């Protein structure tokens, strides 16, 4: 049963308290899923996904499709994505064929009359593909699932401005995309050189001007703070230039330096990384400059103009989170296609292999390439809902939780609420009747607050969260 949407009070900008931020700046999940991917196991395979796809048809929920395109012409040193470095676009042809095979296998279990409300191409660099290859991929998706022409659809693609031009944008529009996300990271030439991503502002500006002219509904820019050679002053200059470009959305990520997990990061000189205090100053400047410019701080690292669909969804209580971050399209079943892609179907998560050979071998053998996953328990479903609402609404109506799941919510979450007692004493949360409200001072620490409800995170182990990035 899905609770009706309830309009929420407008969310104010967070209050800055450096001492509190330092004290609570531990490591923790980003909660693009609950349970997180660390809970997935290899006992979950293709048959389990097939069964979930079939079960999901009874819901009649619309579909969301994610397509992973792993190819990049150059490796950015900060990157933690699953990618293959090559300049040979012909290498994409066998991959596209296998993507089509995966679509065919998945579509056998789906009612393909369900509308595809959301489509997202990520990577890697989706615009690595030639125009013809992009057209071919859209045709295959349409043939297998039936794509939408509704003006309310959310069809987005990630673009590297170094590898796209105005002709690319016009082609993407003709294919049905209505939202683009441009990777920028930083506009300072010294920072760009340190991360192996030289990208003059003019490239980004030209594409944005053309996207506005063509009528793309929403433009997102990705920035990263905490990169080598950045300072609070230099990042503020980047932000000022970005504000002039007037994107509808901004994602401003905290760089997580984890070279033991992501080999390209070993090319970064650790001595050039900003200090923890400098990173806090960058975050403070980010929030101050963007809110002064009229952006709404949606949560964590997302900002949007007040009339953007993300801000509207948050005000209406319908905002959600998925593996691409915050989303305005709630209640979709997400099917991930391609190497490393993750699906969220019905009550399961399913992930494809991160290794291209293993992905290809499964499809060549006629099997869905599911390598690992998880079917959620009733407790998982309850906690997933609670964590998602807390992170999206910045509040949690315990009475509504109890009514939805038929539980005594305060008793059910007694341990979680006890873990939140210090945060309440520090003014990060407060109770308004039966509703737990995240204060302005607590919004920057929303990941810490959500962790209290995570039953799969060993709360008593000091190094339990070492595989996660820092919260601030």
Automatic annotation (TrEMBL):
Cofactor(s) this protein requires: [4Fe-4S] cluster
Main location, first listed in the record: cytoplasm
UniProt keyword annotation of Membrane present: no
Record field: catalytic activity: coproporphyrinogen III + 2 S-adenosyl-L-methionine = protoporphyrinogen IX + 2 5'-deoxyadenosine + 2 L-methionine + 2 CO2
Superkingdom of origin organism: Bacteria
Molecular function terms from GO: coproporphyrinogen dehydrogenase activity
Keyword Iron-sulfur recorded: yes
Pathway(s) served: Porphyrin-containing compound metabolism; protoporphyrin-IX biosynthesis; protoporphyrinogen-IX from coproporphyrinogen-III (AdoMet route): step 1/1
CDD domains: Radical_SAM
InterPro entries given in the database record: Aldolase_TIM, Coprogen_oxidase_HemN, Coproporphyrinogen-III_oxidase, Elp3/MiaA/NifB-like_rSAM, HemN_C, rSAM, rSAM_sf
PROSITE patterns: RADICAL_SAM
Gene3D superfamilies per UniProt: 1.10.10.920, Aldolase class I
Pfam family, one: HemN_C
Subunit annotation: Monomer.
Binding note for cofactor: Binds 1 [4Fe-4S] cluster. The cluster is coordinated with 3 cysteines and an exchangeable S-adenosyl-L-methionine.
Enzyme Commission identifier(s): 1.3.98.3
Domain Radical SAM core: residue ranges: 57-290
The protein's name: Coproporphyrinogen-III oxidase
Compartments where located: Cytoplasm
Keywords, ordered alphabetically: 4Fe-4S, Cytoplasm, Iron, Iron-sulfur, Metal-binding, Oxidoreductase, Porphyrin biosynthesis, S-adenosyl-L-methionine
């Amino acid at each position: 049963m899905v609770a009706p949407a309830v309009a929420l009070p407008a969310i104010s900008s967070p209050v800055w308290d450096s001492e509190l931020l330092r004290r609570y700046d531990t490591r923790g999940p980003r909660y693009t899923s609950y349970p997180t991917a660390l809970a997935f196991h290899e006992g979950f395979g293709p048959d389990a996904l097939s069964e979930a796809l079939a079960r999901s048809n009874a819901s009649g929920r619309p579909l969301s499709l994610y397509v992973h395109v792993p190819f990049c012409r150059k490796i950015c040193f900060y990157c933690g994505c699953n990618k293959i470095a090559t300049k040979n676009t012909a290498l994409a042809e066998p991959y596209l064929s296998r993507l089509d095979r995966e679509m065919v296998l998945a579509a056998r279990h789906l009612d393909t009359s369900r509308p595809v409300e959301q489509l997202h191409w990520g990577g890697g660099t989706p615009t690595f593909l030639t125009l013809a290859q992009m057209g071919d991929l859209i045709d295959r998706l349409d043939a297998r699932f039936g794509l939408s022409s509704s003006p309310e659809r959310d069809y987005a693609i990630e673009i590297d401005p170094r590898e796209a031009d105005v002709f690319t944008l016009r082609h993407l529009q003709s294919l049905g995309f209505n939202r683009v996300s441009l990777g920028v990271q930083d506009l300072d030439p010294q920072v760009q050189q340190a991360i192996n991503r030289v990208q003059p502002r003019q490239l980004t500006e030209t594409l944005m001007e053309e996207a506005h002219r063509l009528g793309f509904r929403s433009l997102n820019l990705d920035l990263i703070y905490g990169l080598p050679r950045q300072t609070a002053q230099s990042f503020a200059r980047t932000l000022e230039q970005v504000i002039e470009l007037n994107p509808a959305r901004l994602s401003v990520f905290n760089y997580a330096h984890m070279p033991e997990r992501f080999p390209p990061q070993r090319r970064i000189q650790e001595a050039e990384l900003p200090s923890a205090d400098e990173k806090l100053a960058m975050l403070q400047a980010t929030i101050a400059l963007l809110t002064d410019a009229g952006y709404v701080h949606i949560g964590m690292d997302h900002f949007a103009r007040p009339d953007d669909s993300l801000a509207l969804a948050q005000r209406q209580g319908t905002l959600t989170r998925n593996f691409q971050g915050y989303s305005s399209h709630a209640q979709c079943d997400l099917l991930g296609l391609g190497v490393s892609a993750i699906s969220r179907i019905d009550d399961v998560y399913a992930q494809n292999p991160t290794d291209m050979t293993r992905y290809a071998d499964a499809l060549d053998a006629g099997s869905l390439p599911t390598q690992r996953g998880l079917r959620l328990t009733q407790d998982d479903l309850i906690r997933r809902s609670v964590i998602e609402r807390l992170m999206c609404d910045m509040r949690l109506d315990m009475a509504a939780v109890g009514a939805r799941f038929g539980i005594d919510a305060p008793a059910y979450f007694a341990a979680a609420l006890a873990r939140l007692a210090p945060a309440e004493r520090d003014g990060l949360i407060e109770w308004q009747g039966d509703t737990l409200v995240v204060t302005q001072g607590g919004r920057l620490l929303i990941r810490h607050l959500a962790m209290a409800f995570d039953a799969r995170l060993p709360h008593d182990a000091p190094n339990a969260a070492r595989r996660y990035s820092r919260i601030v």
